[in-house]
Amino acid sequence: MSKFAIALLITVFGLSACGDKEGVVVYKQGSYSGKTDGKPWENAAFAGDKSKWDNSIRARGQNQNESKRIGD
Amino acid sequence: MLIKKSSADSNTARRGRLSRSIQGTSYSAQLPEAIDRRTFLKRSGVGIGAGAFASQLPFSMIDKAEAMGSKPKGSDAVEIKRTVCTHCSVGCAIDAEVQNGVWIGQEPVFDSPLNLGAHCAKGASVREHGHGEMRLKTPMKLVDGKYQKISWDQALTEIGTKLLDIRKKSGPDAVYWIGSSKHNNEQSYLLRKFVSFWGTNNCDHQARICHSTTVAGVANTWGYGAMTNSYNDMQNAKAILFMGSNAAEAHPVAMLHVLHAKENGAKIIVCDPRFTRTAAKADQYVRFRSGTDIPMIWGILYHVFKNGWEDKKYIDDRVYGMEKVREEVMKWTPDKVLEATGATEEQLFQIAKTMAENRPSSIVWCMGQTQHTIGNAMVRAFCVLQLALGNIGKSGGGANIFRGHDNVQGATDIGPNPDSLPGYYGIVPGAWKHWAAVWGVDYEWIKKQYASEAMMTKPGITVSRWIDGVLEKNENIDQDSNLKAVVYWGMAPNSQTRGKEMLEAMKALELLLVIDPYPSATAAMAAKARKDGVYLLPAATQFETVGSVTASNRSLQWREKVIEPLFESKPDHVIMYLLAQKFGFEKELTKNIKVTNNEPSMEDTLREINKGCWTIGYTGQSPERLKLHMKNMHTFDVKTLRAKGGPCDGEYFGLPWPCYGTPEMKHPGSPNLYDTSKHVMDGGGNFRANFGVEKDGVNLLAGDGSASKGADLQFGYPEFDHVLLKKLGWWDDLTEEEKKKAEGKNWKTDSSGGIIRVAMKVHGCHPFGNAKARASVWNFPDPVPVHREPLYSTRPDMVDKYPTHDDKKAFWRMPTLYKSVQQKNKDVGKEFPLILTSGRLVEYEGGGEETRSNPWLAELQQEAFVEINPRAANDRGIRNDDWVWLKTPTGAQLKVRAQVTERVGSDTCFMPFHFSGHWMGEDMLQYYPEGAHPLVRGEAVNTATTYGYDSVTMMQETKTTVCQVVKA
Amino acid sequence: MKQLKSNSWLWACLLAACALVLASAHAADAPAPPAQIQAQAQKPGVTPAHNAEATWREVRAGTPGVTTVRGTETGVLVSPDGNTWRQIRHGPVTFYGSLLVILVIVAIALFHSRKGMLRLSEKPTGRTLVRFSNWERSVHWLVAISFVCLALTGGNMLLGKYVLMPVIGHTLFSWLAGMGKFIHNFLGVVFSVGAVLMLATFYKDNIWHPSDAEWIRKAGGLVSREHVPSRRFNFGEKIWFWLGVGLFGLVMIASGLSLLFPNLYETRHAMQTAEVIHSIAATLIFCMSLGHIYLGTIGVEGAYQSIRTGSVDETWAKEHHQLWYDEQVQKKLGKGA
Amino acid sequence: MARMKFLCDSERCIECNGCVTACKNENEVPWGVNRRRVVTLGDGLPGEKSVSVACMHCSDAPCMAVCPVDCFYHTDEGVVLHDKDMCIGCGYCFYACPFGAPQYPQSGAFGQRGKMDKCTFCAGGPEVDHSEEEFKKYGRNRLAEGKLPLCAEMCSTKALLGGDGDVVSDIFRDRALKRGKGGEMWGWGSAYGKPEPGTKKPEVKS
């Protein structure tokens, strides 16, 4: 029995190394599988046109850059 | 963070109240049909179940969403209304999203050249005012110490009768009218007209206690009393000195321009008794003793003169009296400055050097300078520093005097002032005749409304002294009767000093009328003082009406109406018209103004202003031009404020006054005042010839070659009138029609605008002449600014060296004490060793009732507090967050939280001035009208502030008094 | 590579830090302030300089700043504790905890398969003795049932995501977990009351007795299958009582209550600590309870009967609790006389 | 692919709390729940800095890792959102989050946590865009209107930047360079995780 226990322990310890996380920062999605959320461009305003949405977001982003407006 | 279950006893109560207010059942049932949209919202949105749920939560998400009018954009169209924030003078534009008459969203206006979409806490939360749960909802009357709801009809009838009674009994001067700096320009203007037709000069507004010393001091130095440049123009500054201004908390969006400038290399210098959020962004910070601004400035100027850093040519050409200043300045050797201020030679040398080597350098001041017994002298010291450095009239330089309220500039320019008609015309008969002509009423008729011609031309009591107008012995005051009635029209009582005495004054009145969306501070004080004789009328906010508003940089913006007036409230000008009806002069009031449903047209009112305000150039900003600017904000350059192309091409944003001549003349507005590098028709200018052409044999006109660009007269010249035009041979440049109107007139009274047109457009000259600025203002008590210790000082040695003025007998109709108070309190520092100063918090504005009623803001500042240095606190056994009593020589004591912080020095305490609703330890909740009390209440610092008034304008002293703090 | 492993939030912190460091470095470069500060430092009551360089170090250490947002720890910009907590909980606690549980279950299974149920060596007499009063049994079952529910719902919080969710799916699982949390919170209170009652009810019979020494020496006869004479409760049961119910039970209650009332001005650190303690204690008490349940059910013949009905056969009493049996007999005789 | 990020420039932040009230305004967050807060370090002392903080929408979000019911998810834009229908209010995300982002309205007699609430980057939640449900549970969905979070859009000094990580980092970098410093800090290109293939990685200057 004790042999078995030791073997088990070794196996488990050994395997625990596999629990180590990926060494690079990765963008994790998680295992969420609840309600789906639509894409932000899939609505009346953008009618699924992603590039239109991208442009809109980029333009809004530049609004936060007062230097661009001031244009010194 | 988790919500605390009960973070404070008051919290629990607040939660209950808030949720009650959300349920809305208590008052929605009483609401008349006029506001059915709202009632509908309440009823449909919040059922019984949600209400029950809400009683447990501070705000349940769902419940709140419903109550506010939920925002998802359904099928109904969303309208965008462009308006302007009502919380400070920066003039931040706001796009309001309105659906079915409900304000559902607030979008930043990136196009605005003033704020580029940016907002501080207040600006980001204005939408709440469009829902205003804690607002006054109906007219109310104090009966037996409790406020009761009454109808508008009853209210107006009773108020009208009582006021007319008082007028009959005690004369028109027995009523005191306090206007507002939150009225728009048109309302402010109408109020001055209204009060004139009532027959008194006893009217005033916040500007008295905020920038009156600036206006008087600065206008007497170089012509106009306004901020010379703009927030935007500060981007061109190479160095900026903030003194007595905490822009980061008082004008946060201004910091957008300032920090942008800083990143482009501008040096930021902050001198303040308190290490403010602005100081945190400074390259140099110097702490000094409150009230010693003049020694500080002279200390800086000492190094300027000593090192020959002054702009000698500029001074020769454009400044009068600098040598007298120099004499005074050189007395302030570094050791003396150190003794008075606590600032070292090295520190001040560094500032002088930075300002001198980084020109154009700009200077910013606010209430830290103005609210002193010598405020007028302090602001002039600033002007002198800028004149010495040659910074005035330069882009990137200037005296940037940040105004407080959103329209305090406009209300000062054309609103209820006790010593002037709109446009700083004064109250001499000539001014009255000018305005009588504009108003289309008979001068004699106005005169009849007054007690006498003498009273008509005598400046009224100031708002800072109305309490003495009630309490002072009749023989001591310079009018027939004491004040019997006071009308609080958009003003907070806790903004004024000597709160304890104000309570006595309220007790002594016959009638107190409060007109405000949030009248609660006045209402509560009144209910504490008396059992009856108080009326409250619900006014609409500026989001519920239209009109123009003048930002600190003198730009005018037009507000669209976002929503209809909430509850039973009415816009101020409607209330004015209804009261005028009771007094029988509504026809005279609106002779040139169309009235629809008792509402005078704001557009017509502005056109009338355009017809009369030649002095300060409120004549070019027609409603049409302003509306065009609001629509085309994106065409304006941020640094210059000038439109590049588009329908407003070449104009400056908001047509910053002076925008001379008629709208048809198309003056573009003046972005920076007195700027000789530009043609007058490009917004250029020079110092004003307002004080004669010579003084004691010295020429006051500007030196040769120092006129504005392209002017036909390249030397100093006096202001234009029909005589000068004829002498110059320019008279025939006028049209025949203009000649008729201009004959015998000057540029300020020529109703055709012809003199201005010819001077500016034809000959490139400035209608107000071209003179020198006055470093020595001979008509003021101290022509050259002199340091005088505050009346309550902790330094008896300094009192001996720098004593205050002598007492004055009749000053704005009031006896005013200086020396007698100072001498009596010379040793007050023994008992009250700490200097008490006050200031702003970013979350609140002014007296704070409106902002403390806004849950989004109120949550962030839930208690009144006093900032005290760890050293001072430890000496008193006080720890952070302890309750303390703050005591002052008035006998008042305030129970507040101690905030132990290094922000203040060990000799100074700071209290924010926005709180009210606690009275020396007592919560005044029971005195408030039901459902109209602010969410956060606390001790008002001004309950405890002491006596002290400026020697020119009657500005109150709030920034330097004394106190003691003990553990509660 | 190992360095990069740090979680991205840490990078986010660093990012915030960069802005700060940049700012402070910048401030430090400006020539004016230091001189000024020194000048000011000479004077009493003048602001001393805040070491700008140290700002970020303090932030990382969780030193609070000031904020107008009310609440506990709102002034803390970055709290470093969360990651530690996460690493402990999702590392050793989960891993060794589940390992321990598995080991215990395996051990019991092995034991049972080798030894089988411990049966009575003599025939039951048919005469019974009252071993547990109604009150005692009520208390036991109150605690036992609430414990089992707590163990299941709690275990689900810790491991359900790995064990149950893949099986029953996301939606059902989150509903179950939500219910579980509700039940856990509610029964936690019931258990707390029950455990206290249990301690009060049974503590007398669990006090040390010299005979326990014998029991310890023989290790309870567990392996030798020898009956060691004991009083009402043998030393094994006493261990369970004092360690399981007494120590761990109270630890569970204390840490659990603190988690139950998150609004009592608790810091995150306190809650994190409580959670870890709760989890560890839960694992241990659960493992012990497995032993107890085993012995009380299929491990020992007649044991379950005793707590279900409250009565035991004289034979059972004699074999398992000789001294107690003698006491009872004495009592009876005494009464009879 | 736009990857949404917040960035607060402490050199600019003046603690005006505009972001805090903008959030309250836009999402009608109840009293006591603050999705965003501004923290001032070294208050009242030279060197004082303020930073606005909310959910940082981490790539490897600790909240997501510790959630016992896995109610968190990343949108394609890198926004960390959660499903309130699933949330059981256990508080683990609050324990794990270094920024103190998760908030809990009080619920029930014990003052227990209600369902967690946090900054959504103004991206609503797992409900139909612009629906009543979405607004009640999560606040406004500005991203679906092609707009960015109101806190960042309204920031008084443009200290708080929000939006596509590339765009905000460019804005910040330009500013930092103009201030005369900043090149060396560009080690944080990886701060927000590895860019997806095909996207431009912010340049590492040092």
Describe the structure.
The complex is a heterotetramer of chains A (72), B (968), C (337) and D (206). Chain A has a domain at 39-65. Chain A has 3 helices and no strands. Chain A is 47% helix and 0% strand. Chain A starts with a helix and ends with a helix. Chain A has helices at residues 2-16, 50-63, 66-70. Chain B has 968 residues and is of the alpha/beta class. In chain B, a hairpin with a 5-residue loop joins strand 28 (883-887) and strand 29. In chain B, helix 11 (293-306) crosses helix 15. Chain C is mostly helical. Chain C has one domain (81-336): Fumarate Reductase Cytochrome B subunit. Helices cover 71% and strands 2% of the residues of chain C. Chain D has a single domain, classed as Alpha-Beta Plaits (2-Layer Sandwich), CATH 3.30.70. Chain D is built from 6 helices and 8 strands. A two-stranded antiparallel sheet of chain D has the order 1-8. Chain D has a two-stranded antiparallel sheet with strand order 2-3. A two-stranded antiparallel sheet of chain D has the order 4-5. In chain D, a hairpin with a 4-residue loop joins strand 6 (106-107) and strand 7 (112-113). The longest helix of chain D is centred in the last third of the chain and has 14 residues, at 165-178. The interface between C and D is large, with 80 and 71 residues.
Residues in helix, % of chain C: over 70%
Distance between the termini of chain D: 26 Å
Per DSSP, the total helix count of chain C is 13
Q: What summary fits the major beta sheet of chain D? A: 2 strands, antiparallel
Low-confidence segments of chain D, ≥5 residues, pLDDT <50? 182-206
Structural class of chain C: mainly alpha
Can you tell me the CATH class of chain C? Mainly Alpha
CATH topology of chain D: Alpha-Beta Plaits
CATH architecture of chain C: Up-down Bundle
Q: What is the string of helix and strand elements of chain C?
A: HHHHEHHHHHHHEHH
Give the class-level CATH name of chain D: Alpha Beta
